[in-house]
Amino acid sequence: xxxxxVMRGLVATVETSDPxxxxxxxxxxxxxxxxxLPVRGGHHNIxxxxxxxxxxxxxGMSPEAFAVAANRALAGELPGMAGGPSPDAAATGGAGAVAxxxxxxxxxxxxxxxxxxxxxxxxxxxxxxxxxVLRWVGTPPKSFPLQLRTAGRYVLPRLALIGDAAHAVHPxxxxxVNLGLADAHALAKALAMARE
Length: 196
Hints:
Layout: E1 2-16, E2 25-29, E3 32-40, E4 43-50, H1 52-59, H2 63-75, H3 89-92, H4 94-101, H5 105-118, E5 133-136, E6 142-150, E7 155-156, E8 159-160, E9 167-168, H6 175-195
Antiparallel strand pairs: 1-4, 1-5, 1-6, 2-3, 3-4, 6-9, 7-8
GO biological process, one term: xanthophyll biosynthetic process
GO molecular function, one term: FAD binding
Organism: Chlamydomonas euryale
């Protein structure tokens, strides 16, 4: 059985500002997750779950325009994004205007807390922002329909379906790989018990 989700998974290889970055970055957007995954030498793969219209727009962007959109997604600056600026943030001055109106008390308190905590956490372990996406490289971004799929039957005589042959899920955080490994473990355990 198959269920097509009205979403697309967009993939691209991008060059980033920090060739040494080996951190996997993920942001949960209203349309779905956005992942920036390190691969090699300043390159990352992007896996971006989004709407069909947004996917078409992103696929048609120049390398640099795509980088702007990806950086906005990573920073939480897309319109209507939970936690991101509201559409009128620029007009009102956002949090900076509120802090200034409060006589800078918020900013001073924030700086004091930041300084106090700085001594508690070694610099290598402190949070840092993700690297900037500079441009897509190689093949332009492409998207594919997201599906949830499961086989009608997992087991027949002398046959067992496991992993993606048995079920396909949303490409989030390696769930498909993890489920496939769990399937292989369960099958090996069942076969070992059957031999006993």
